[in-house]
Amino acid sequence: MLIRYVGLDVHKDSIKIAVAEEGREPARLFVSIPGDTNKLIARIRKLGSKSSLRCCYEAGPGGYTVYRSLTAAGIDCKVIAPSLIPKQSGKRVKTDRLDAENLAHYLRSGDLTEVWVPDETTESIRNLVRLREDARIARHKARQQLNQFLLRKGRVCRQFKTRWNVGHMSWINSQKFAEEADNVTLSSYLRQTELLDDRIACIEKDLKLYSSHWSQNTLVESLQGLKGIAFVSAVAIAAEVGDLRRFPSAGKFMSYVGLVPAEYSSGQKENRGSITRCGNAIIRRLLVEAAWYYRHKPGKSRAFTLRNEKLPKRIRETSWKAQQRLHRKYMKLLMGGKPKNKVIVAVARELAGFIWSIGQSI
Q1: pLDDT band at 303 (very low <50, low <70, confident <90, very high)
Q2: For residue 60, how many other CB atoms are within 10 A of its CB?
Q3: CA distances (Å), origin 9, targets 47, 56, 251
Q4: Domain boundaries, the chain
Q5: Rg (CA), the chain
Q6: E strands along the chain, which residues?
Q7: Structural class in CATH, domain 4-109
């Protein structure tokens, strides 16, 4: 049976379709059509039987609509990681036609890296996670603007070490200015931050509601057994990663979240740089934030005990082992003279290994 490899350069308004036959013949552009999945399926079916077609396109802002439509029609389709598509350094021309032909060519040669496609329920939970992330960034910006306004007016709060808690917000609300326009400005900034606080709280309630019957709920509960990972972090990790068993080793998962050092070595020279920062930025941020908890001595707070009491014994043992190991690593690197930020990144990398370990048995 003759296999045809189909590369799709998908855009909002158009789709370029290129085909590579078996053998060594170069890929060729088949047709350019409007960005409509029904027309796409009709065109692809003209290339041959469903079993003889292999399609792919780059992951992008269009999501997985094309993948799901082709899969539902019985056509084999893959979503490709754009950053891992081979590039020829001598080529200085990039067009949609060439992109489609390259996808078909590299699909035939087996040089493309497929991305994991979540099911629709997991994607919907992921959308809620990213909605919260957008709201968190907006709140951070609103708080910065409020703080800058107060600083311009010479109002600096030195009573509280931690900002944005009840005491600090009470202090901000108590500020009065001689000019009424300044009071209106302060009121507007405060209202914006309070609205974003309420928005984030509502999103978190929705996350708890819709994730309670989710297939990944067991993983969410198990991850909360780790120190520094509460519900929001656990559900974000589960939604962004999906099934942790798809990673064959802990190192692969560490690499996926961009916490492994970059390396440029050749011959006798070894050159390692900072972390790659590739992969999922949301998970990387959550792991780094959680890693700060391991600077404290191992212990079991009331909230930590409540989260762990219903978990299997193996998960509780892994959680306690993580506390001991990661605190020792933190202290060892810190006493060795390493900068604190680098120490935290190293701890976050090992924390990713414990998350991977928990995910293998869920």
Answers
A1: confident
A2: 14
A3: 17, 9, 32
A4: 4-109, 120-211, 217-359
A5: 25
A6: 4-10, 14-21, 28-34, 53-58, 76-80, 261-263, 272-275
A7: alpha beta
Tell me if 317 sits within 8 A of 287, measured CB to CB.
Answer: no
The span from the CA of 79 to the CA of 115, in Å, is: 6
Instruction: Decide if pLDDT at 46 tops 90.
Output: yes
Split at pLDDT 50, 70, 90, the class of 270 is confident
Read off the pLDDT of residues 144-165 as tens digits, 9 standing for 90 and up.
999 999 999 999 998 888 899 9
Model confidence over 168-215: pLDDT tens digits?
A: 999 999 999 999 999 999 999 999 999 999 999 999 999 999 999 999
Cα distances (angstroms) measured from residue 155 to each of 140, 152, 163, 307, 321: 19, 8, 14, 41, 46
Give one DSSP letter per residue of 30-94, joined into a string.
Answer: EEEEES-HHHHHHHHHTTS-GGGEEEEEE--TTTTHHHHHHHHTT-EEEEE-GGGS---TT----
State the CB neighbour count (10 A cutoff) for residue 212.
Answer: 9
**Residues constituting the chain:** 362
What is d(CA 27, CA 18) in angstroms, rounded to the nearest whole number? 7
Q: Contact 164/143 with Cβ under 8 angstroms?
A: yes
**What are the tokens at 165?**
């808690």
As a whole number of angstroms, the distance between CA 268 and CA 20 comes to: 41
In the chain, what is the straight-line distance between the N-terminal and C-terminal CA atoms, in Å? 40
- The answer to whether 294 and 355 are in contact (CB under 8 A) is no
* Backbone φ and ψ of 34, nearest 5°: -65, 160
Cα separation, 161 vs 111, whole angstroms: 53
What is the rounded distance in angstroms from the CA atom of residue 250 to the CA atom of residue 302?
A: 30
- Number of alpha carbons in the 13 Å side-chain half-sphere of residue 111: 11
Pairing of strands 76-80, 28-34: unpaired
pTM of the model: 0.91
Confirm if 282 and 236 have CB atoms less than 8 A apart: yes
- For β-strands 28-34 and 14-21, DSSP reports them as antiparallel
Separation CA 318–CA 313 (nearest Å):
9
Amino acid at 298: P
Tokens of 225: 């057994």
